[in-house]
# Entry
Amino acid sequence: MVCCGRWQWAHLLWVLAVWWFCFGFWRVISACPTSCKCSSTRISCTNQEPGIVAFPRLASASDAKNITDIYISNQRNLESINGSEVLQYGGLVNLTVIDSGLKFVSREAFRNNLHLHYINFSRNKLSNLSRKTFHHLNLTHLILTANPLQCSCDNMWIKLMQRAALFGLETQSLECINENKKKKSLASMDIPSCGVPEVRISPTNLSVVGGKDDALYCYFSGAPPPNVSWNFNSLTTEYMTELDTYVIILKLTNISSNDNGKIISCIAENAVGEEQASVQLVVYFKPQITFLEKGIPDHHWCIPFSVRGNPPPALQWFHEGAILNETDYIWTQIHEVNQSEHHGCLQLDNPTHVNNGLYRLHAQNEYGTDERQVMVHFMGAPALDTFTEPTEYEWTTETSSPNVGLTTDERQVM
# Structure
């Protein structure tokens, strides 16, 4: 009976597993667009009749996330891939659209497809492609053969990628159609006033005392005229920008010490490519002891502390108001440096009750000082011995008698 029961449970689980697989497979199949075949990870659209007129989409967003491969061919009425049509396929790795009527791919088409590595758009009707469509992707292959690409500045980036041997373009024989409607090698395309922009930041080094104001100037040039912007990560300092004909200014007000070490970049971008220049912001400020706690036992005892300051401050410890001279048994150890903040310990090797007391940390650089103190207790004082020997021998009546220890006869003789 037990064996039979186990067999029935195993059979039931097998039936449920098969049902779940079939249900999931049927759910994907039932949501598959007309003229396409779908599995849990792949969509294939190859049937010409009736064919598709838009990029295939699944009704279920959860099913779409599992799709890694989309293959489309012989779809003459598919003319565009728009901004939101590929959005749901976040796990897409391979995309093939070949032998179809594709004429346009939106700049925003693949903004959510960061796993996309392989794109094949060969034998379509693409005349221009924007660099922004692909510049954020880590592509291994971008296949563009047999498209009527125009010899235009919009396609100059393809020539530069081909020259740099990126995306596998260097192995492709790409052609473009010039203003005379004649084909020529894309690699030999030469378009006047069409190039990657140039940028230059002044000053090249920005060092300033915290709390002061300063400014950065980014000079740019390029044709077509580039879009220019400042780029920085979570800048605490107040700022504003001003744009002129060939310069963009970043004005910094009340510069914060929290921004010491931050990288500030100026980026210029046009249809051909982008260029950037960067400087590191160096902020000088007085020390700040941000953390000081009681000792904690470790391999050695540690009085932990954190201190900020630029330049890095000199540290001096005091114990009970007196300068603490560091030795092989008591020393300062820095364990981590994060931008302008140092994290460390005052290490003590086997401290005793003599080391108990008030510890004060003094930090100093050329811009000021800071101090903090903490009371630390390592161990109690040893207990005192309460037994004391008598200074003189104490005589009792019994021990002081001259007859003690004598026999009766001996006493009589005395």
Observations:
- The CA atoms of residues 353 and 379 lie 5 Å apart.
